[in-house]
Amino acid sequence: MIFKIINKIMFFILCFFVSLSFLQGLTVSNPNDELYEYLTVWENRGVLKKLPPLRPYPAQLIIKLLKDVSSHGSERDVKIADAYLKKLNKSVSFTAGLVNDSRFSDGKYYSATGVHGEIESLISPFVTLSGSANVFLIDKPAGDLLPSYVRSDRDLLPDWADMNLFGKHFFVRQGINTMTAFGTDTLYFQLGLVRNSFGPFFDDGAVLSPDAPQTGHFSFTWRSKLFTFTSALLELTATDNSGKGRFPGKFLAMHSINLYPRDWLEFGIFETVVYGGRFEPLYLIPFSEYFYLQGVLGFPDNSLLGFSSRVILPYNLNFDFLLYADDLQFDDMIRFHFNTKYKLSLQAGITWTPDIKEISQLSIDYILVTPYMYTHKDESNGPQNYTNYTQFGENLGPDLEPNSDRITLKIQTTPFDFLDVGIIGRYIRHGNGSVDGSVNVGDGDGSLFDDGYDNNGVCTFQDTTRFMTQDIIERTFQTGLT
Fold this sequence. Notes:
Blueprint: H1 2-18, H2 34-44, E1 54-55, H3 59-72, H4 75-88, E2 93-105, E3 108-124, E4 127-139, E5 163-165, E6 168-183, E7 187-194, E8 197-198, E9 215-223, E10 227-240, E11 247-262, E12 265-276, H5 290-296, E13 302-313, E14 317-328, H6 330-333, E15 342-352, E16 359-369, E17 384-385, E18 390-391, E19 394-395, E20 404-416, E21 419-430, E22 435-436, E23 439-440, E24 474-481
Antiparallel strand pairs: 1-8, 2-3, 3-4, 4-6, 5-6, 6-7, 7-9, 9-10, 10-11, 10-17, 11-12, 12-13, 13-14, 14-15, 15-16, 16-20, 18-19, 20-21, 21-24, 22-23
Helix pairs in contact: 3-4
């Protein structure tokens, strides 16, 4: 028994080193870049304040933030910020490297080998470019290595550029991520093809997750000492009601305003609407209400409303909260009857960022997703679903199915000046929202493509919400190290 354990440990260590790639540079247009981890720590420690909710940020803003860190941060903060500034202040900065992922499974071998390049360009003080590109040669008999509730961090175009090499069949895949920004650190417009992130939770959040596939991105942000206003239009790719196929002409429009009444308090309100089959200029009106505009059009689309808040507490403690609702039964809820119809996500967390050299940050957050949240019945006659909350058939929000919840504990440490270590633990629950106890209420499987209507077109969630009422609940425990 002891030898089996030792062998597993040695195999894990071997896989760790085999999976190492050449260190990548900096891509400010990628909200998963390690730079955003540092921005989170600096904001929670009070070195930075009032960061905009929509990411990625343009280089104009990041340069300003890094200069603030250089002026007010610790000695290590200054070193990190200056290293980033050295690259961003160049007219053109390019980084390239080799990447390889390998694994064995049941006697089969999987590998993905590619070339990865990144570019940052300060064209002028008011125009910047950020992007990355890669090409991979994939030998895939054993399949990708991804744990449950984890999505790939690569956007690879599923084309037909395959080839035979050395007697094997390889998939050839390419990916491009790019963002161009115009303006200053207080007023800027961005357009590109990128992943997105929104809200006080920088990682897999309830609104826009950086783990979701890339989208076309067009956004405007206006920052001041009292508020931040954001308006965005994301171009999406629709699928049918089983997640298959690719259909153009799907959009998500968003606008938000974050208010700062006190240095220690922040409030945000935001709206989104998902629609398709047409381009709707009404949703570009900045100071409007999407639900009202949808009513003017005859309610053909899917509008959602959200609230967020941040409270900065003593001892570098921060409390964050976000509520994102598709549908609420207010008449019942104001009478304290909560076993009623509501489709929503709720996320809350507390973060401690101590002034301790060896500990960067400790955080715990909880998110719940009620049955049928992120799903939507499409009334159009075509095979595509233009109104559910998906991109390429994946959730634009968290990597959770409806009727799920998740609690996450993160510890970020700095044992040495040259090393950051992150430890994560997660506990996830999921049940089929179309089941109550052991009784099938609807005809669906409780997934993102189960809209809550049975085969007769009857809504099964009009009077009740079956959050975790199932006899069978899937439970997942995960740990990770970075």
